[in-house]
Structure formats: structure tokens, C-alpha cells
UniProtKB/TrEMBL annotation:
Stored Pfam families: Glyco_hydro_9
Catalyzed reaction equations: Endohydrolysis of (1->4)-beta-D-glucosidic linkages in cellulose, lichenin and cereal beta-D-glucans
Protein name: Endoglucanase
Sorted UniProt keywords: Carbohydrate metabolism, Cellulose degradation, Glycosidase, Hydrolase, Polysaccharide degradation, Signal
GO BP annotations, alphabetical order: cellulose catabolic process
Length: 502
């Protein structure tokens, strides 16, 4: 080997050092994929809901590997409870998260519907109606709400296509003696918000939704209590969708949506007069299917920011406080981020926090922009541009700008999860394998290392851990399971960036 001269040796060593540093940083460096096709992502995000449908599927069903399922739901109880959505990768219809999903889809249309391509606006309204048609069935009896179909313990003991489902379809309900203000309040919110979404395209349906929302909210307020406190249904909803944070936030949330939809002062008085007693100042930095506080504060702040209702100032103060926690340069910032920049909260299905918070960032940014206001975060004044930037970082991370260099939305981009925790996606479809696959016979597909045979297009999985690492492992449901309430707020977020990509 020829020994290089001292000058050449210096250059050689410098080159080696540079290469070493580059290689060292590969595992933690943020991989950017360039500009994203937000319209394609939006289309797929909405399409996902067709894969979660229960009931008799329409002739224009686009995810053709799905077929009819749950056609006897409610029959043993003398009520038609067909339809609605399976919340995640199982075959249970949980009413609490389904109602929240519906509210968020409707809120997406209310805030960002005019930014959606017409076809995708129509598809979003179809997705909402698939839920609201079902929710109307659940509240068809006076002072009673059917809150769930399917025994989750039995269901989770099987790995079975929904089309083959032969597990017990237990129906759970709340009534005046066994209240459920949380589910009732969220259902009222879903119906009220959806009435706004349908107001221009189907005013008669919108009126039905609103009048029903009013009735359901009265039930929630007149018979107070958490649904998971009822011994008759506790075993069916816990630990999956217990009410961990109390029912009070859903009462305020339901009233806030009824105020927005009806403009009735009675609901304004409700949220003004009951804020303290119902804990409006509690847990203001949380938002999701169980805790509505941050979303409530953002929603209610609109009227105060517009200068029309000064009695709502406390809600705006809480909304400002929440926004300040999300801004890294703020002295009150305490949100946790992964090294790659993803919002991270301990527990399962982290992307539910990411998409919901990104949605609130965008909505609040719009409210601030329209009223030319900012948020005072101590020594930092935060405007709408900063909130928009934070939201964009989150959605771009989901779509591929992350250390793994992969999209966490199935079917979007060149690299995405192949082994998601989802029964229908992981088992050959009835079109390809028409023979019945019994409860335990699906286990071979659960344990397989092969990619899922059916692509659940648009499904956003729970996502990577706090170290930005994602193992494409079907068994790791906390990371690999999609849910409707991950996708629902993302519909609105993507709609915004379709119209404002830069």
C-alpha cells in the first residue's frame, strides 16, 4: 500500500471523519421526503373509514375487500343497531369513541370543508352520515342510549374477520336509572356538529340531527353520571373505553356544540354558568375521546375572540395556556417531543394525541388570524404563523419526514406499515377466501410475519415510540393499530394543507 503525503493524509483523514459523522447521525437524523401530496393523503385518510364500516355495505364501497358484517346487531334486544364503525382493529362498536370520531369529522368540515376538493367534501359527508345514521338508531328510545355492541373480552379472544363474526353481540345501554352523561354528551355534540356539516347540502337531515341532539343533551344533563360507573356495563367498556376523566367535560362540550349549532342563549348561559362547577379549569391540556377540555376551550374561544361574548374569557385564557405548552420557545412549554419532533404522550396509540393537537393548533391559528390577535406566552408572543408551523411539523412527520423515513399512513408514500394490527386487513378477504374462518383459525394470520393481504388504505397507526423507532409488528397493537379517532381530526388538518401547502 502506498503511504500518502502529509497533505494528502490530512485530506484523507478529514474525508474519513466526515463520512464517520454522517454515518453516526443516520439513525437519529430527520429524513425529509420533500413536499407532500396533501390531497392524496386527504383522499386516503377519508377512504380509511370505508374499511371500518359495519353493516350492509353500499354498492359504491371502494375498499372492495370488505363485505357486509354485523347484520343482526341489536336484533335480540328488539332494536336495529346495524351500521356504524368498528373503532380500531377489532369487531366491537364502542359508542363513546365513535361519537367523538363523528364530532371531529364534522368539525373538520365546519372549519375546513371549504378547503376540501368537492369530491373529498362529499366523501367526508358520506363518512359522517355512516356514523350519524347509526347514532340516531342508538338514541331512538326515550331516556335510553345504546352505547356499545359486542363483548370486547370475547371479541379480543378471537382473530376473526368481521364478515365471519360469530362472537356474542352483547348490547350495552344507559338509561335514567343507570346514566351515562359522558356518552350522551358526546353523542349530542356529534349530532349538533354534524347538523352544521349538513346544513347546506341536506337541511332536513340537519334539522333532524339538531333536534335529536337537543333531546339527547337534556337526557345527559338530567341524569348525571359516568357510564362506566354502571355495574351492568362496566365489564363491557373497561378497561378499553372507561370514562377516566369524568362526565363533566362532555356536558360542557355538548352544550358548547349546541350553542354553536343553534345559537341559543340557553346553551351560552349553560357553559358560562356551569364552567366552574363542571371543572372547566381542570385538565385543560388534554384532548381526545375521553377528555374534551382543550378542544372545548378552543371551540368556545371563537365567540370571545370575535368580540361578541365577553363572558367566555376564561375559556380563551385556558385555550391560550394550552397553546403555550405546545411552543418550545415558551417558558410554559411542557409537552414532550421525540428527538425527531413528534408530539409524544406516554401510553398507547400516540398518534391520537398528535392528530387531535395538530387540529386544535390549526383551528386556533385560524381564529387568531381572522381577529388579528396573538397569544401571550410570557416573554414570547405567539401568532398564528407559529401555531401553523407546529401543526405542519406534525403532519409532515406522519407522512414521512421522520427518522424512520416512512409514512405512518398505510398506502401513502413508498414506505409504510405492512403488518398493522387489524383483523380484516390481516386475514384473506371473503372475496379471495370465501370459506368461513372461525375464531381461533385466524390466529395463524395474526402470528404470520407476512404483510397484511388487504391494504387498509389511509389507516394511520399508533406510531413510533418516544425514540422515534417503529417496529412493523402486528402484535404490538400500541404502535401498529389504527383507530377512527386518529384519522378523524387528521381529515381537517390535511384539508387545510391541501389549500395551504407551504
Amino acid at each position: 500500500m502506498t503511504i500518502p503525503s502529509s497533505s494528502l493524509l490530512s485530506r484523507y483523514l478529514l474525508l474519513v471523519l466526515v463520512l464517520f459523522v454522517l454515518l453516526l447521525g443516520t439513525s437519529s437524523r430527520l429524513v425529509k421526503s420533500g413536499s407532500h401530496d396533501y390531497q392524496d393523503a386527504l383522499s386516503k385518510c377519508i377512504l380509511f373509514f370505508e374499511g371500518q364500516r359495519s353493516g350492509k355495505l353500499p354498492t359504491d364501497q371502494r375498499l372492495s375487500w370488505r363485505s357486509d358484517s354485523g347484520l343482526g346487531d341489536g336484533r335480540e334486544n328488539g332494536v336495529d343497531l346495524t351500521g356504524g364503525y368498528y373503532d380500531a382493529g377489532d369487531n366491537v362498536k364502542f359508542g363513546f369513541p365513535m361519537a367523538f370520531t363523528t364530532t371531529m369529522l364534522a368539525w373538520s368540515v365546519i372549519e375546513f370543508g371549504d378547503m376540501m376538493p368537492p369530491t373529498e367534501l362529499r366523501n367526508t359527508l358520506v363518512a359522517i352520515r355512516w356514523a350519524t345514521d347509526y347514532l340516531l338508531k342508538t338514541v331512538s328510545q326515550p331516556d335510553r342510549i345504546f352505547v356499545q355492541v359486542g363483548d370486547p373480552l370475547v371479541d379480543h379472544n378471537c382473530w376473526e374477520r368481521p364478515e365471519d363474526m360469530d362472537t356474542v353481540r352483547t348490547v350495552y345501554s344507559v338509561d335514567s336509572a343507570n346514566p351515562g352523561s359522558d356518552v350522551a354528551g358526546e353523542t349530542a355534540a356529534a349530532l349538533a356538529a354534524s347538523s352544521m356539516a349538513f346544513r347546506s347540502s341536506d337541511p332536513a337531515y340537519a334539522e333532524t340531527l339538531l333536534s335529536t341532539a337537543i333531546r339527547v343533551f337534556e337526557f345527559a344533563d338530567n341524569h348525571k353520571g359516568a357510564y362506566s360507573d354502571n355495574e351492568s356495563i362496566r365489564a363491557g367498556v373497561c378497561p378499553f373505553y372507561c370514562d377516566f376523566d369524568g362526565y363533566q367535560d362532555e356536558l360542557l362540550w355538548g352544550a358548547a356544540w349546541l350553542r354553536r349549532a343553534s345559537q341559543s342563549d340557553s346553551y351560552l348561559n349553560y357553559i358560562t354558568n356551569n364552567g366552574k362547577t363542571l371543572g372547566a379549569d381542570d385538565n385543560i391540556n388534554e384532548f381526545g375521546w375521553d377528555n374534551k377540555h382543550a378542544g372545548l376551550n378552543v371551540l368556545v374561544s371563537k365567540e370571545f375572540l370575535e368580540g361578541s361574548v365577553y363572558s367566555l374569557e376564561s375559556y380563551k385564557v385556558s385555550a391560550d395556556s394550552f397553546m403555550c405548552t405546545l411552543i418550545p420557545e415558551s417558558s410554559s412549554s411542557h409537552i414532550e417531543y421525540t428527538p425527531g419532533g413528534l408530539i409524544y404522550k406516554p401510553g398507547g396509540s400516540n398518534m391520537q394525541h398528535v392528530t387531535s393537537i395538530a387540529f386544535l393548533l390549526l383551528v386556533y391559528a385560524n381564529y387568531l388570524s381572522r381577529t388579528s390577535q396573538t397569544v401571550n406566552c410570557g416573554s414570547v408572543s405567539v401568532g398564528s404563523a407559529s401555531l401553523l408551523q407546529q401543526a405542519k411539523k406534525q403532519v409532515d412527520y406522519i407522512l414521512g419526514d421522520n427518522p424512520m423515513g416512512m409514512s405512518y399512513m398505510v398506502g401513502y408514500g413508498d414506505k409504510y406499515p405492512q403488518r398493522i394490527h387489524h383483523r380484516g386487513s390481516s386475514i384473506p378477504s371473503v372475496k379471495d377466501h370465501p370459506q368461513f374462518i372461525a375464531c381461533k383459525e385466524g390466529s395463524v394470520y395474526f402470528g404470520s410475519s407476512s404483510p397484511n393481504p388487504n391494504t387498509l388504505v389511509g389507516a394511520v397507526v399508533g406510531g413510533p415510540g418516544e425514540d422515534d423507532v417503529y417496529e412493523d409488528d402486528r402484535a404490538n397493537f400500541r404502535k401498529s393499530e389504527p383507530t377512527t379517532y386518529i384519522n378523524a381530526p387528521l381529515v381537517g388538518v390535511l384539508a387545510y394543507f391541501v389549500a395551504n401547502p407551504n
